[in-house]
Amino acid sequence: MLVDIALVIAAYLLGSISSAILVCRLMGLPDPRTQGSGNPGATNVLRIGGKKAAALTLVGDSLKGLLPMLAGHLLGAGPEALAATGLAAFLGHLYPVFFGFRGGKGVATALGVQLGLYWPIGLSVAAIWLVMAKLVRISSLSALVSMALAPLIVWLFWPEPVLIGAQVLISLLLFWRHRSNIQNLLAGREDRITEDADGS
User: Fold this and answer.
1) Is residue 111 in a domain?
2) How many domains does the chain have?
3) Does residue 166 lie within any of the structural domains?
């Protein structure tokens, strides 16, 4: 029990480390909270810093979800503890204690959680995102579609009610954090993925 509690706390604290802010500081880029969309995530870092900075942010945010889940497996955590750990890492990214509880929208961290829970789940969600991104070239819409289908994918690969419930909560929170994107999508104003970002 104490191990599970420590795991959940560690997951939240790790999730609270903002990869976007740290990458931008290390690379001498503007604070992503004050530039572009104002979101400390990989898509906004791509806009303001190019592909290399965005890739580092994406990897960092994914690891925040992946590593606690792998640790949970190594420690023999059951479905309840794994569900709580994944939620904690995701909430840490959304509401980071180290950055005034102003975090990102959670797509990469959610994907890391899914990969760490069971890799076919994560790969399936990632594949849906990639197909959607190729078809519509809108990052937010790709994320929303993939995360809307994520509870079904968890059910298909690991039909444990607590894990499905945790994914439902993650998906709902992700939709809530994307509410401005949803408004822009409905109005036809959402930004598209471009190929001309600076590769530096």
Assistant:
1) yes
2) 1
3) yes
Report H helices in 118-160: 119-136, 139-157
Q: What is the pTM of this model?
A: 0.92
How do residues 116-162 score in pLDDT, each as one tens digit?
999 999 999 999 999 999 999 998 999 999 999 999 999 999 999 99
Nearest 5 degrees, angle CA 37-CA 39-CA 43? 80
- Helix, strand and coil in the chain, % to nearest 5: 75, 0, 25
Give residue-wise pLDDT tens across range 77-118: 999 999 999 999 999 999 999 999 999 999 999 999 999 999
Could you list the residue range(s) of the whole structural domain that residue 103 is in?
Answer: 2-187
Q: Are 50 and 28 in contact (CB under 8 A)?
A: no
**d(C-alpha 105, C-alpha 93), whole Å:** 8
